[in-house]
Amino acid sequence: MESSDKARARTSGSALGPSLNELGYYVGRVEGNLYWVTDGVYQAAFLMTSDGVVLFDAPPTIGHNIQRAVDDIAAATGASNEVTHLIYSHHHADHAGASSLFGRSIVRIGHEETRTLLLRDDDPARPAPEETFQDRRTLEIGGERIALAWHGSNHSRDNIFIHLPDHDSLMLVDIASPGWAPVCQGAVIEDVPGYIEAADTALTYPWKHFIGGHMGRLGSRDDVATHRQYMADIAESSRKALDTVDPAPYLVTYGENPWDAVTGYLDAVTATAAAPVIGKYAGVLAAAEVFTAGTTFNVLQSIRLDLGYGSQVHP
Ligand SMILES: [Zn+2]
To answer: Fewer CB within 10 A of the terminal residue: the chain, N end or C end?
Structure first.
């Protein structure tokens, strides 16, 4: 558990959110009748409308506390506590695995690729959305506007932007985690150029409140801008490291085993690229020391393989 100890040691106050209640969740208002609920690691959101409750994601770690959070707000406001709609940000089980708790009769909405992937995965916990869209779809539920958009693959190939223009809010999951370095994204970026671009796209929308799907607090535009700069710094540092780290010593050291040479070289480039970024963001983004190398490895591979940077044709 050394890495989580490190993460904890460098967790600054700005990374942490409000305290959880004794059942293990916090529910709060985002704006107007839009609310969010967290267990400190995952987030869902919900909109209380005159036609029922529209839920955005159903992380299994929050599980039954999602309905409890809705009940809390319904009791306080006199609105209905009946969840009638569930919008999936993307198909991943860690954000959708409590979907089946809301039964078969609610309306599930998602990207058409989310439907394809959920039909493929055939997980009873995550029924596929019956209502789908391709690029854009604006919903009007109970008089509330919810603008869904797909801007290409990023963290996953089906991850969408959920904009609530009347609530000054954007929900975009698994891209930026306010206050934190991207957690484990080193392993789960499906499309690195798309992942990097997603922060730019997010900032083209008008909004004040960012719901990132992770960790214990909401985000601001500054949080997303910091994430964007962090990723840009990783990309720039990766290019520099590709330019400067000489593969020759690794070929000599591991002469007998060419794959060891490749691994040793890539590890060295990753460490060289990550070091200045860790130095810059330690104390700025929690867990930068823990996760930057993993993210850098992925970015580095994308720069080599997607962009062809540093690729030389044998003379
Ligand atoms: Zn995901």
So the answer is: C
Q: What is the pLDDT of residues 256-287, one digit of tens each?
A: 777 878 888 899 999 999 999 999 999 999 99
The Å distance, Cα 185 to ligand 1 centre, comes to 9
Kindly report, residue by residue over 34-83, the tens digit of the pLDDT. Answer: 999 999 999 999 999 998 999 999 999 999 999 999 999 999 999 999 99
Please identify every residue whose CB atom is under 5 Å from ligand 1, which is an ion. Answer: 92, 174
Integer CA distances (angstroms), 229 to 48, 121, 167, 210, 277, in order: 35, 35, 26, 17, 10
Residue 95 CB coordination number (10 Å): 28
- Ligand 1 centroid to 70 CA: how many Å? 23
* 175 CA → ligand 1 middle, Å: 9
Name the fold adopted by 2-170: Metallo-beta-lactamase; Chain A (3.60.15)
